[in-house]
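Chapter review: from sequence to fold.
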Amino acid sequence: VNHYALRLASSTEDTPVPPGGTIGRGADGKLDGRLIDNALHLVEHLVPAPDRAERIDGLRLATRDYAATGIGTVRDCAVTPEDYAVLLAAREAGALSTRVRALISALGLTSAAQVEDLLDVMEEWRDNSDPWLSVWGVKFGLDGGLEAGATEEPYACDHAFSGMLIWEPDALVEAVEAVIRRGWRVGTHAYGDRAVRTLLDVYERVLERNPGLPAGTLVMEHGGLAGPEQQARAVVLGIPVTIQQPLLHDTAEVEEGYWGPERVARLFPARGWIDLGAEVSAGSDFPVGQFGAMRSIWGMITRQTIIGVKGPEHAITYDEALTLH
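The token string follows.
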């Protein structure tokens, strides 16, 4: 953001860095306008909210476009309570052309107490009898994405940086347990290999402390740099994973700048997941990757990106890719 936005947000050199966030500074120590992860809320709340009628019209257009590509159901992984109210209004207005399964967003939250407050709000949405719109569960974020995914090795562009974890593991265990005690499911964003390992550590502790959880209660979203060891752990623990090939296709050039070509080639290892017997499903991560199931299927078969084929050993067959969707 620019300096004017920082002034509007009353953000200065003395503003405390929020847990799980970064406030960027230049070499001179002054703010450079870069805000990462949990620091985004410093300015996001300043953006005027669109009119509800406009949002409903937008959903009418968007879900029609989704349906036109053959998408019958959208699993929306970042729905705020305010967003869900709009979705409910859109459903009542007959504006949805695809089914929606919403994950209510806990992004930006930093404690189990805050998550409990969110769960209180969600109580009125427990009825999943509507085939068009329902709440799937709660969405957490453990690390950043392209620019802040938590990696085991330093970034190619900055050997002093290895991404960041948004939650401390102990706090995330407590927050996840708060969700499952209320009978909801959990999907957690984990992109870098350090985040994947940490998330499996968290889920393993939750499973040990809460035996008998229904299958599919705990899900890993992305599992971007999951290597063979962590893939095998996920399968043993019974953790399903979602992968998003269009995200790799569209961002490969940017990601190589951060991580280098070897790590980018290892992203979304569909072949390994399938061979290990994982429960894996596929999507787009739109708007980061373009939506359209056939684009994703093509990418999984070819491993093609905007800068060429990356990681051909992770390619799968057409039938396998279709099944993942």
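Two observations follow directly from the output. The chain has a mean pLDDT of 94. Residues 106 and 118 are 8 Å apart (CA to CA).
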